[in-house]
Amino acid sequence: MIFDYETLRLIWWALLGALLIGFAITGGFDLGVAILLPFLGKNDSERRVIINSIGATWEGNQVWFITAGGALFAAWPIAYSVAFSGFYFALLLTLFALFLRPIGFDYRSKLPSQRWRSNWDIALFVGGFVPTLIFGVAFGNLLQGVPFHFDNDMRIFYTGSFWALLNPFALTAGLLSLAMLIMHGAVYLQLKTEGDIHQRCKKVATVSAIITLAVFALAGIWVANIDGYQISSEVLPNAPSNPLAKIVSKEPGLWLGNYANYPLLWAVPGLAFIAGAMTLALSKMGRPGLAFITSSLVLASVILTAGVSMFPFLIPSSSALNSSLTVWDASSSLTTLKIMFWTTVIFLPLIVAYTTWVFRVLRGKITLEHIHQNDHSAY
After folding, report:
1. What integer best gives the mean pLDDT of the chain?
2. Do residues 53 and 33 touch, judged by C-beta distance below 8 A?
3. What pLDDT is recorded for position 1?
4. Stated pTM of the model
5. How far apart are CA 200 and CA 23, in angstroms?
6. Burial class (CB in 10 A: 0-12, 13-18, 19+), 225
7. Distance CA 288, CA 296 (A)
8. Strands of the chain, DSSP E
9. What gap in Å lies between CA 58 and CA 192, rounded to an integer?
10. Could you give the 3-state DSSP secondary structure of residue 315?
11. Which of 115, 213, 285, 355 could form a disulfide with 276 if both were Cys (CB 3.0 to 4.6 A apart)?
């Protein structure tokens, strides 16, 4: 085997980030479109245009979400357990909100009743809004630390509550998540539509891009002043996973430690601001294809900024510092990571290639004429 345990742990940390970014870019625009549905569609035909702009691809985009969850379970089982213990109700709420999406897509146009269709539009909005908000809130809580600890038998004890997750910083992170996915969805709709919807999307993309940049800057200042975490004891990157075999300390400003040690990392949050400004400019210039690329870079940079800031921590503990989970002590065994690595080497390129092919085949705009000509087959 060409990789040792330390290298494989780093590879899987990077792969988990890549899967989250893949979901944010592909699944993110259809979540953003769902949030915008009740506001950008002024009548039933326009709302059907908006729905059909993602109707052929939204289901396939969930592959990234499912794969990311599977990778977390297989590569970082302790982190998976802690996440589902601490965020159980929030994740359950997310799951129920996501249930509304396939039902809404399939049943919305089954009856001609305006009330029936309006109710499903609200359901699709909820199915986009709730997961987007909760994903951001989850990242906000990770940066602050999650109240959990292990006992001597490695049993997990979560001492927080659902309402405690809705703290000011976490809600700010949730607002950032909403703003950037609305921006991403508006740019995608600008690419896929024309006429009045296209013009409304341009305005929404402008406003949401500005809000994204402003909230990201605010969150950055906030992160610089909240308690960060660091490993104070010796790091054993090739040792078997044992979260309790280390000493962790925390103090304000430690989340900037990686940037101080490696100044080139400032390029990661810097790219988010540059890409956000370019998205704003390209959208206003009527270049939605390029704007979609730069919008995707914004999402990738924001997620990478969170990952780089927290590294090597995956889930820091605010109530028992030494129980914090890191890249070095929360992974599966060396054998498991090896098997999964070669499986990923084979199948991840296939997923990327298939996704690219699907979007290439389904490129083009959705128009009112298309909806009227395919009244019984379109959503």
Report:
1. 92
2. yes
3. 53
4. 0.93
5. 26
6. exposed
7. 12
8. 148-150, 156-158, 227-231, 248-252, 313-315, 325-326
9. 14
10. strand
11. 213
